[in-house]
Amino acid sequence: MCSVALLILHAAFVAQTGANTDSVDRLADTLIDKLTSKLLGSQLSIPRMSNAFLSPYSASVTRVQGAQNNLRSFGIGSNPLESLALTAIDANNRGNRDLSVRAQQAKMASGWSTVDDVTKEKLGKVLDQVKAKESLLAGITRLGYFDPLGFSTDISGGKLLFYREVELKHGRVAMLASLGMVVGEVYHPLFGGDIDAPAIFAFQQTPLQTFWPAVVAAIAIPEIFSVFSFENPAKQNPLTAEYWKMKDDHEPGDLGFDPLGLKPKDPKELLAMQNKELNNGRLAMIAAAGMVAQELATGSTLFSG
After folding, report:
1. What mean pLDDT value characterizes the chain?
2. Cα–Cα dist 41/115, whole Å
3. pLDDT band at 191 (very low <50, low <70, confident <90, very high)
4. Interior CA angle at 77 toward 72 and 82, to 5°?
């Protein structure tokens, strides 16, 4: 605040007395001890308006005018240089505040700020082993970091990649299942519309139930390709071999299939999309499990009325 006060006094004194810069600086040095405590105790700082209906320009003008009114109580008259100095100070303060807000939002987006120091050190050692560090940090959002059993810290980087891959696959399947149960029970025109049963039993009432080998083969195709993303235990030290460990350069959930180009190129946008997918997938897993349990308990549909 001392620098703010001196800047304003500098502009006002030059305009009113025509003194040069050196004389103003000497005067400032002489008066600083006497004015600092009084100015810091005043309302010299530019007040911030909370009116959401003001434009940025109007809000800035209002703050500058408020500061000018405060300066009048110290006998400092109005002049163009004073207005220029106050406007520059307001713009600088606003810019610093915006940068601080954006930095805080970035930290909260990654969730790293919610991790305690001990866990940060352990998790950092795991992340150092893999390439897709940002992908593994995704999913730590408003609920913060939650891992009481240490699934993400007391393991190797390859094992953590496997856990994230499993979570993504189950989340994607659960999202499709949740949507399929809702739509299938409400709208089911196939097979003449006669298949009107709880979603968990509908498959058994269609001719598809005789084609289980074909269904299993279709499901196995993408899983066969995923085998190549795992470390071969036979090539590891027999004493320290770890099963279900993915290669350190693997990116969880990336199947190399994006015909519509939906994957963002910007890292921040990609992290935001990964957070959305994980949060929706987690919710869908809980929702699908709840719907299956309810239909097993009641033996009736949930959405067909």
Report:
1. 75
2. 38
3. confident
4. 100
Residue 163 to residues 69, 187, 238, Cα–Cα distance (Å): 61, 36, 22
Distance CA 160, CA 154 (A): 9
- The average pLDDT across 162-177 equals 96
Q: Which residues pair with 230 in a beta bridge?
A: 246
Q: Give the largest Cα separation in the chain, rounded.
A: 99
As annotated, the residues of the chain forming the CATH 1.10.3460 domain(s) are 115-298
User: pLDDT-derived band of residue 56, with 50, 70 and 90 as boundaries?
Assistant: low
pTM of the model: 0.62
Is the CB of residue 39 less than 8 Å from the CB of residue 75?
Answer: no
CA distances from 41 to 8, 45, 83, 86, 131 (A): 16, 10, 22, 18, 53
Domain 115-298 class, CATH top level? mainly alpha
Distance of alpha carbon 219 from alpha carbon 262, whole angstroms: 24
Q: Residue 9 in contact with residue 28, Cβ under 8 Å?
A: yes
In this structure, the chain runs to a length of: 305
Q: How far apart are CA 262 and CA 265, in angstroms?
A: 9
- Rounded to the nearest angstrom, the gap between the alpha carbon of residue 53 and the centroid of all alpha carbons in its chain is 28
**Other C-beta atoms lying within 10 Å of the C-beta of residue 115:** 20
Q: Are 154 and 268 in contact (CB under 8 A)?
A: no
